């Protein structure tokens, strides 16, 4: 069964698509670097938030509330994009309910986030949070680092930093998986922040404008990034 699974994926995702590969449209390297930058920054930012929520959620009565971090991972990404878009436009609705006009706030938020670098970063951060939370939540079930560092007098940001440093494998794993999540995201970015174009948006546009061949080539290169990253993760876990 294992061999069959490998063969099926090789055929469906690499060998057969190669028959349609065509020249890449311009902009691939820029989209790749843009994705790597924003996904990397969003992943780093998500680490302390994911760890803090995992620690907070271990207290009685908080576990259910902390599960809200799962939401971006279990609903359609397009839904997350729609919700983010409506969130930045919400001041107008809130103010109109009390007889005020706050359109200028909504317009400013829209201009700052929608189809802007800040929007790409926000979207990737929202999608990275569940990954960081899940990794740290699992790691903390096995390792009692929190109690140890608290006994040494650490608290607040210092406590988070010491736990991050002590859970090196979990921290690096959370970063890598969050980083890769940014490469695979299309739905949120398509609705909320399609510019500057990330790799998923680049592939989507290549499909619409240039057809199957260029989109296949870009997709195969993106898959190469994923395969190499997955191998790095496997080597890391085997240490």
From TrEMBL:
It comes from Pyrobaculum aerophilum. It is a multi-pass membrane protein. Keywords: Cell membrane, Membrane, Molybdenum, Transmembrane, Transmembrane helix, Transport. It is found in: Cell membrane. SUPFAM superfamilies: MetI-like (SSF161098). This is Sulfate ABC transporter permease. Gene3D superfamilies: MetI-like. GO terms for cellular component: plasma membrane. The keyword Cell membrane applies. Its main location: membrane. The keyword Transmembrane helix applies. Belongs to the binding-protein-dependent transport system permease family. The chain crosses the membrane at residues 31-56, 68-89, 109-136, 186-204, 216-237.
């Amino acid at each position: 069964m294992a061999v069959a699974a490998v063969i099926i994926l090789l055929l469906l995702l690499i060998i057969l698509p190669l028959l349609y590969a065509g020249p890449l449209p311009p902009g691939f390297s820029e989209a790749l670097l843009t994705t790597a930058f924003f996904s990397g920054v969003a992943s780093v930012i998500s680490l302390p938030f994911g760890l803090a929520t995992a620690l907070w959620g271990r207290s009685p009565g908080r576990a259910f509330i902390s599960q809200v971090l799962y939401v971006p991972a279990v609903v359609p990404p397009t839904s997350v994009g729609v919700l983010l878009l409506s969130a930045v436009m919400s001041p107008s609705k809130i103010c109109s309910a009390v007889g005020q006009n706050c359109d200028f706030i909504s317009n400013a938020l829209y201009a700052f986030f929608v189809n802007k670098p800040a929007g790409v970063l926000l979207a990737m951060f929202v999608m990275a949070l569940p990954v960081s939370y899940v990794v740290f939540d699992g790691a903390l079930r096995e390792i009692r680092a929190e109690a140890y560092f608290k006994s040494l007098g650490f608290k607040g940001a210092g406590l988070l930093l010491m736990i991050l440093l002590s859970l090196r494998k979990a921290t690096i794993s959370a970063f890598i998986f969050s980083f890769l999540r940014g490469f695979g995201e299309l739905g949120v970015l398509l609705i909320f922040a399609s510019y500057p174009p990330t790799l998923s948006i680049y592939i989507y546009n290549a499909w619409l404008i240039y057809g199957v061949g260029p989109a296949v080539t870009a997709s195969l290169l993106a898959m190469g990034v994923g395969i190499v990253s997955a191998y790095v993760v496997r080597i890391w876990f085997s240490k």
